[in-house]
Design goal:
Number of domains: 2
Radius of gyration: 24 Å
Shape: globular
Distance between the termini: 14 Å
Largest sheet: 7 strands, parallel
Order of helices and strands: EHEEHHHEHEHHEHEHEHEHEHEHEEHHH
Structural class: alpha/beta
């Protein structure tokens, strides 16, 4: 089984959960002996783990003939190609590729991130996907999140192979309902062209069916998982430098993640006890607003903002925490609570998160219920027996939620699509 996957992020250079999920799923699927995965991304950095897949960078794929006289090319290929077909090809190249910013090898430049000209990069990525699709054989196409849906559609057009799109989030999650019509259009176009849609939670599945008007029969939920803890991660020691209890928020500081509810709940906890410190680890467009809010609540001396963290830093923060909180307003899944529980950290999550569908050993509150959230925080730091129970049972629970199991569910969908075509 040859899968041609399109993604935007891949560890260690990630900006959110998308890259973590792409890595975990592909590694889990690679445990199937006959699975061959080619993963295409805009710009690899060279230090990605390629031991279980083939990684291709769009930035390294030539799309333009540089410094070549096309009339000379015609002389060399004229005996193989009909003259009219050749001229059509030449005109297509001039019309479609001459305006792209390319390097000396004829490759389109990509930032590898989320730049201001993101829509332009998405379009360029889809152009390169058509080139790659003509050279990499595949049985199935798999596109991760909305940025790669146009690439998946283009590849399906070129190859005629079935397209699976993986919905890690929708713009309804990212915007609290203030949907960007352009993004919505790209998302819906991908769903309409997909032969099957995978969602990371039932919450997201309902959104896909109700907001994007998709046939429920072609939408399947496959929950995310967590990568087994490596010996290097297991060896990381807590760097906690205080006897105070530490309660941590770790993620993008954006309205989707509900950071203001964390700050408000923190203020209520500190009105009852002063032996607690709060950490907001991450970055985002609401960071300055949260710094001001902490100051307004007069808790700045008990609040720490670390900035963006990744890799080993994430586990250092988690292992130095006594409680982890994810108060997301709309979270399609949320892998970080699983990582926290894997480290034995008692965890509080919002009921509005996809991971709440599968986690039983985490405390669940509504994101807006800061009273309940504060009570949960206070109870965990005040009652050791409760903290110990959540620590031990939480780790036991998430250790059974593996990417290998998720990969087998994805493979079932692949086999179903290919069988139906046969």
């Amino acid at each position: 089984m040859k899968a041609l996957m399109f993604g935007w992020e891949f560890p260690p250079h990630i900006l959110g959960g998308l890259g973590t999920a792409s890595y975990g799923l592909t590694k889990g699927m690679s445990m199937q002996p006959d699975m061959e995965i080619t993963f295409v991304m805009p710009k690899p950095w060279g230090d990605e783990d390629q031991s279980f897949l083939r990684l291709i960078g769009s930035c390294n794929t030539p799309v333009v003939w540089k410094d070549v006289n096309l009339d000379q090319v015609q002389e060399s290929i004229g005996k193989y190609m009909h003259p009219q077909l050749y001229f059509d090809l030449r005109n297509h190249i001039y019309a479609n590729f001459s305006h792209y910013q390319t390097n000396e090898l004829g490759c389109i430049n990509f930032s590898g991130r989320y730049p201001d000209n993101l829509l332009e990069e998405i379009n360029n990525y889809s152009i390169v996907a058509g080139v790659i699709a003509r050279t990499i054989p595949c049985d199935i196409i798999h596109s991760h999140d909305w940025l790669t849906y146009p690439a998946g559609i283009h590849t399906k057009t070129v190859t005629g192979k079935p397209l699976v799109i993986h919905v890690h989030a929708t713009d309804f999650d990212r915007s609290r309902g203030q949907v960007n019509p352009t993004v919505y259009g790209i998302e819906k176009d991908g769903m309409d062209h997909a032969d099957h849609i995978i969602t990371v939670s039932h919450l997201t599945r309902n959104t896909v069916i109700e907001k994007y008007h998709q046939d429920p029969r072609k939408v399947t939920t496959i929950h995310n998982a967590v990568e087994p803890m490596s010996p290097e991660v297991a060896a990381i020691q807590s760097k906690k430098s205080t006897k105070d209890k530490v309660i941590t928020f770790l993620g993008r500081i954006t309205m989707q993640k509900g950071p203001e509810y964390f700050v408000e709940a923190a203020a209520k906890v500190l009105s009852k006890t002063d032996n607690v410190r709060f950490v907001m680890a991450g970055n985002g467009d609401m960071m300055n607003q949260m710094i001001r809010l902490a100051a307004q609540r007069n808790i700045s001396d008990r609040f720490h903002f670390t900035g963006f963290m990744k890799g080993k830093q994430v586990y250092e923060v988690l292992k130095s925490s006594d409680v982890y909180v994810m108060p997301s307003v709309s979270e399609p899944f949320g892998i970080s609570p699983l990582e926290a529980m894997q480290c034995g950290v008692p965890t509080i999550i919002s009921k509005q998160s996809g991971c709440a569908e599968i986690l039983e050993k985490a405390i669940k509150t509504d994101y807006w219920d800061i009273e309940a959230m504060a009570d949960a925080m206070y109870s965990i730091v005040s009652y050791p027996a409760m903290a110990d129970y959540l620590s031990v049972e939480g780790k036991n629970e998430v250790d059974k939620i593996t990417w290998e199991k998720a990969g087998h569910k994805v493979r079932t969908i692949y086999d179903m699509l290919l069988a139906s075509r046969a």
